[in-house]
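User: quick one, fold this
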Amino acid sequence: MAGLFEFERQVDRLRRKIEELKSMGKFEPAVIEEIEKKFRKKIKEFYENLSAWDRVQIARHPDRPHSLDFIRNVFTDFVELHGDRHCGDGKAIIVGFGKFEGRPVCIIAQEKGRDTKEKIARNFGMPVPEDYRKALRVMKLAEKVGKPIITLVDTPGAFPGIEAEEHGQSEAIARNLYEMAKLKVPIISIVIGEGGSGGALAISVANRLLMLENAVYSVISPEGCAAILWQSQEKVKEAAEALKLTARDLLQLKIVDDVIPEPLEGAHRDWKTTFANFRTYLRKHLEELLALRPEELVEQRYRKFREIGNLSQKQLRP
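Assistant:
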């Protein structure tokens, strides 16, 4: 593992204590088994009660599976396409066609990169206008050939650089929102890590929005929120709580449609189980959407976004 966060260190200390007891050989197997049972119960309680900021850290964990890992382990026969047919080929969004359990699908995926070289090449997962125009070009191709669209969201936000603004960053994002709302094929968006601001929304105007259990989805990062509201990075924990950015919060607010469970200590601990859960939930929602006619898909997507924000006082209470 690349590193442990503070809450992970607490768990790791307990785990090492149990290993020490085992190595001493002074206890009966039944006693060790009972200790491990209590340990697993404690771990479950601990992870069920993580703070919003803890989940932000898990969503950013360096060992967490990225979009390319999902493409390689969940989909088959993937063929990547390049170019926005305007001026370039962004590297923060991967687009193409592949198969999910034998069914051809269009895949649009934000990729942060692993090592330093790849992170720089991928612009740390922050898309530029060329990325969004490339994604839209391929989504419209998917509509033309009648293939469902699966988008994987994992970005801190759209790239805020001068060149991106000069190339029409805000227009590119707005165009995607407008055009995705009208596409006549099923769209499923899955937040696998960070879903940051308009950079995430530009590929997640979907019929179904799913989130991995420890993913986050928000209009701004906790750091950005703390800087604006409190002018202090010491308030990031308070900002994370106030933003209601966890999967649990967003499911309650009816912004996301379903939450994909992760292994007990997070997706980074057990990729195999994460991919299996991902398949199960994607299969379920895809089958439901494929039963709808094109005009029903457009109407359902429209109604979904019109209803966001229509909340009761009970839902708004902390």
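User: anything notable?
Assistant: Residues 6-49 form one domain.
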